[in-house]
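REQUEST ID: PR-0412
SUBMITTED BY: lab tech R.K.
PRIORITY: routine
TASK: structure prediction, single protein chain
INPUT:
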Amino acid sequence: MKAPLLQGFAVRWEEHPHRVRALGVDLRADRLELRCEGGTWANGRFRADRVRWRASAATLAGAGVHVRTGSTPLRLEGSWRLGERDPAQAARPVELELDAGLARCEVVGVVLRGFELEADGRHPPGYTTRSLGAGVGEVRREGARLVFRPWLRFEAGPVPDRLQQLGAYGSRGEVRWTVVGLERGAATLAHSASLIQGPAGFSPTRARGDHEARSLSLSGEPGLALAVPALSGFRVELNPHASGPWPAGRYLRELEVGVATRRYDPARGRAELDLEAHFSNSGQVSWATEVEAALEVVLLQSASGALERAHLAGLLDGARDELAWL
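STATUS: complete
OUTPUT:
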């Protein structure tokens, strides 16, 4: 079987930063779909803007690879008032009975194959972003059962150049996941977080908020021929130390998260990974921004099989775009 593995995605509005109405990625066996919608200055009501997007994925294939895909719908509710912060986030436990193929696997893990977030009818144009993220949560194998807790976060926040009082707000969403079983292999989970300082300024050509590529070394099991990293979760939070009435939200110009292999030593079972975390509110008027970015990564190692990688890109002129990738 083939296991499709999401390694990263990026979206960038061509002209201006915008509110987020909807955002999603859906990696399937042979296709990838991306969704990105902004507010009234992006969706054509007052003016149109387009999104350039990129995504990276891989497949691990072989007789000893077993796969099950699914999704978990969630409803998010939050509120923002002066001096109060109640982020819109939700999680739901999932319990799966392992089929015969997965049950005989030495290693069973869960990775993120996508997510979707959409503002509800109370605020159709969407929200200025304070934080967002998705993940599969902690994974436990209990005999012939697999237990994990998918989660979503889509938090709105007021921006410095507008008076906003959202009160209660919410969104619909789902976490899309893949269960991967390896008859002979290993899975190593890693968590990486960083705080990035973004300067203020007025040049629309300078990306603020901001960009960081960093490395991560993972030691897995020695002697396994193949290794491939995949995302199991991500979270981007703006101005995490702000409190009280501070306007901590921002319009979104560009967002990117991802992981890639720089090198892998099969004899030692050691992988050197490059991690990417990027948020920009670059535009005619922008404000200094702190960005806390957290990535959860699973390194899957297999004794045998075949590994393929794909890098996709497109221009989204409507709400969604879809490309075949295998």
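NOTES: The chain is about 0% helix and 65% strand.
REVIEWED BY: pending
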